[in-house]
Specification:
Blueprint: H1 2-10, H2 16-28, H3 30-34, E1 38-41, H4 45-57, E2 68-72, H5 99-106, E3 110-115, H6 149-156, E4 162-167, H7 173-179, E5 182-185, E6 205-210, H8 213-223, E7 246-250, H9 258-275, E8 278-282, H10 289-305, H11 317-320, H12 323-335, H13 343-362, E9 368-372, H14 387-392, H15 398-402, E10 407-415, E11 418-425, H16 431-440
Helix pairs in contact: 2-4, 8-16, 10-12, 10-13
The protein binds glutamine.
Glutamine binds next to loops.
């Protein structure tokens, strides 16, 4: 989809400025505004588009010339308010560009603006933003999923060509699933985190969201790569894996809505037949997924938030953030208390290693793993669900995060007029395989 638009722009059938104005008009309609997707807009976008049109005429434009994108409010873009959808940082202006932003601008993509999200990326519904929940464009009564609520909704509502979200434990995949769009969580470290305001640095990864897997591939290939500003970043190794033509279908019945599990199984069987894949039923350690994830996330988040002390930038987080953020700060401070001698954190790290080993074993016989992106259908905005129920949204996504594996969510159909996402997980650095398999599902 984006490739054909790029061609049209290159051939002068459609200008970068026209593309921008089309999105700007749509973003400004009352219907779009009501969805609460954008937190702020880039005032320099028109000048940028005009400059890009000149470059196109001179045949000097970059690979993404004229495409318009928007970003989650935790990715730094110079001179823009990067609030993490929190009162704590509501007046914080980023002094520099994240590496991913520099890469996209260097290829002449145009930044439209900053998108709503769960506060500090803590959440799975898009409801914890201090600036109000993002509504699901496919049914505004429903949650978008989170925490990359704005990035998913912007694609579903056709308000950007592509967006960037961040995924710590599912935050790209989960809203992609609920909004009926595609979202890639890359291998941990393949995309620089420089300029990302972190939730938990050993999980966080920036990734693209768009209509199709091909579009996500286009953007991933621009933003990926080792970066001297991020010590954990790395290039993918050159060698290509040998394929076994076997897909692992996760036994999910005890953890997911039966209707969702059945839909994913049916779809997988159908496509497997068409493409001659063998299917192997597998088990993942889903029973320890949430405990492992949340103990590490609470600990890392608590440590990260110590810089929001009200002295350097923003307000003191304890005085200004919402309940979910405070829960994690209190929980993180408890877990890390000296008298516990690190025992909870150490146990969680042991479990993390165990989970990594399980994946390693599983991937000895199969190429990729398929399971639902989200174990349940989206609830109504404002519906009363418990903290445990909210955390349960993550049971299907956190394992790939714990092991640093790449995973993609693609639309798999609808149940009761609500979107269901299919998730594919691959071994580290095998994003290419994910794109290929995701394309086969069409
Ligand atoms: N829902 C998960 C959490 O609240 C994931 C968040 C994310 O990936 N940013 O931690």
């Amino acid at each position: 989809m984006l490739k054909s638009k790029l061609k049209q722009i290159q051939q002068g059938k459609f200008t970068a400025l026209e593309n921008l104005l089309q999105f700007s008009k749509k973003i400004a309609t009352p219907k779009s505004k009501d969805l609460n997707i954008f937190l702020s807009l880039n005032e320099n976008a028109i000048d940028q588009a005009k400059a890009i049109d000149k470059k196109i005429k001179q045949k000097k434009a970059g690979k993404l010339a004229g495409l318009c994108f928007a970003i989650k409010a935790n990715i730094s873009a110079k001179h823009m308010t990067i609030s993490c959808a929190s009162k704590t940082l509501e007046n914080y202006t980023a002094p520099f560009n994240a590496t991913v932003i520099n890469k996209l601008l260097a290829e002449d993509a145009i930044l439209l603006g900053i998108l709503n999200m769960d506060e500090f990326a803590c959440g799975a519904s898009g409801e914890t933003s201090a600036f109000g929940p993002t509504k699901n464009p496919t049914n505004p009564e429903l949650i978008t999923g989170g925490s990359s609520s704005g990035p998913a909704a912007a694609i579903a509502a056709d308000l950007a060509d592509f967006t960037l979200g961040s995924d710590t434990g599912g935050s790209i995949r989960n809203p992609a699933s609920h909004c009926g769009v595609t979202g890639l969580k890359p291998t941990y470290g393949t995309v620089s985190r420089y300029g990302l305001l972190d939730l938990a640095m050993s999980f966080d990864v920036i990734g693209p969201m768009a209509k199709t897997p091909e579009d996500c591939k286009l953007i991933f290939n621009v933003v990926k790569g080792q970066d001297n500003f991020d010590q954990a970043s790395k290039d993918a190794p050159e060698k290509s894996p040998t394929h076994k033509n076997t897909i692992g279908l996760v036994n999910i019945k005890d953890f997911a809505d039966k209707k969702i599990a059945n839909l994913i199984e049916e779809q997988t069987k159908k496509i497997a037949k068409q493409h001659n894949w063998k299917i192997k039923k597998i088990n993942l350690p889903l029973d320890i997924a949430l405990e492992t994830y949340y103990i590490i996330v609470y600990t890392e988040f608590f440590s990260n938030t110590r810089k929001y002390d009200g002295r350097r930038f923003g307000k003191k987080i304890e005085d200004s953030a919402g309940p979910e953020v405070l829960r994690r700060i209190i929980g993180g401070s408890e877990i890390t208390k000296a008298e516990h001698d690190g025992k909870y954190y150490r146990e969680a790290l042991k479990a993390r290693n165990y989970i990594k080993l399980q994946f390693k074993k599983i991937f000895e016989d199969i190429d990729a793993i398929i399971l639902p992106t989200s174990p349940k259908l989206p609830h109504k905005i404002g519906g009363t669900i418990s903290v445990q129920e909210m955390y349960n949204y993550d049971v299907t996504t956190v394992l790939a995060s714990i092991a640093g594996l790449p995973a993609i969510s693609i639309p798999a159909g609808q149940i009761d007029k609500k979107h269901v996402g299919l998730q594919i997980i691959a071994p580290q650095f095998q994003e290419e395989l994910l794109f290929k398999l995701a394309k086969d599902f069409k």
